[in-house]
Amino acid sequence: MNSLFYLIKKPITPSLFLLRLFLTKRPLSPPIAPSTTHPQNPLTPRPPAPTAVAMAFVKAQKTKAYFKRYQVPFKRRREGKTDYRARVRLINQDKNKYNTPKYRFVVRFTKKDIIAQIVSASIAGDLVLAAAYSHELPHFGLEVGLTNYAAAYATGLLLARRVLKKLEMDEEYEGNVEATGEDYSVEPGDSRRPFRALLDVGLIRTTTGNRVFGALKGALDGGLDIPHSEKRFAGFDKETKQLDPEVHRKYIFGGHVAAYMRTLAEDEPERYQSHFSEYHKRGLEADNLEELYKKVHAAIRADPTPKKSEKAPPKEHKRYNLKKLTYEERKASLIERLNALNSAAGNDDDDDDEEEDDE
């Protein structure tokens, strides 16, 4: 073994190479053909080899400890209504700010309405400081198109002016009176700081040009201080990374609706008459929409207080059941019956006396 190791370790020469090849070469045995019969019973054919089978789904077994420690999620999380990860970050206040509420500018959309609120969180529940709805806009002159981008802007403007008037800050912070479509941020005044709130969009997908940012723009022009970026306003170009004020202004004053009205009137007149029937009833055309929205904005700034709708007095319905009597009425009725019984008993006694006298 030592000599072999010595041969291997010596410098390689042709003869040494042949010797090493001879010592390490192994005889090659012919390949063995696979048997086609069963190993135990030669008369039984061998079963086919199993093929690869995908692993079946195995259900994870929950232990007793799992069910014992299980905590049910919040109700609004189970219903898919609240994003608690975002909510915690919106309502978490600094620990050195005692009894200072953190306000949120909440915007929600339904099929026929736009809801905008200024909300603060408390242990007992959320407190609404002020609210504005798009169904209030008919009081200010806008009766149609209550769910589009322009209506969202008007609703945000209405809420901003309403909450500032409630806090007696409307004269100091007038906001952007003329809507030009450019980005606007309120500057601090001399006496009081501007009212600050954080945008709460809920589960809305925050795409560029979404209506929720129309409400945000209305609140900003109304005088509220809301942290924001112009990247999500309608008219922002992703390639140039700049906001086009003209495009944004067109959306604020319903220019996109007017453009669709003109296109539909040319291509499909019948559908145009049915689709914009409420506009036709009020004499609204594509050319006078901008003037309408300007009047609405001016009316909101003039008096943003909520208007009570005039309701007709309730109709008096005929009562078919007996009215429940009070204690005094029941007592008086009992006295009347007793008096009637006493008087009837007195008359009977008089008749008996007269009969005895006759006898």
UniProtKB/TrEMBL annotation:
All copies of domain Large ribosomal subunit protein uL18 C-terminal eukaryotes, residue ranges: 289-342
GO molecular function: 5S rRNA binding; structural constituent of ribosome
Chain intervals with Acidic residues compositional bias: 347-359
Annotated region described as Disordered, given as residue ranges: 302-323, 338-359
CDD domains (UniProt xref): Ribosomal_L18_L5e (cd00432)
Keywords of this entry: Cytoplasm, Ribonucleoprotein, Ribosomal protein
Main location: cytoplasm
Subcellular location, record wording: Cytoplasm
GO cellular component, one term: cytosolic large ribosomal subunit
Alphabetical GO biological process terms: adaxial/abaxial pattern specification; cell division; leaf morphogenesis; ribosomal large subunit assembly; translation
Highest taxon of the lineage: Eukaryota
Basic and acidic residues biased stretches: 304-315
Gene3D superfamilies, per the entry: 3.30.420.100
Family: Belongs to the universal ribosomal protein uL18 family.
Subunit structure: Component of the large ribosomal subunit (LSU).
Name of the protein: Large ribosomal subunit protein uL18 C-terminal eukaryotes domain-containing protein
Organism of derivation: Coffea canephora
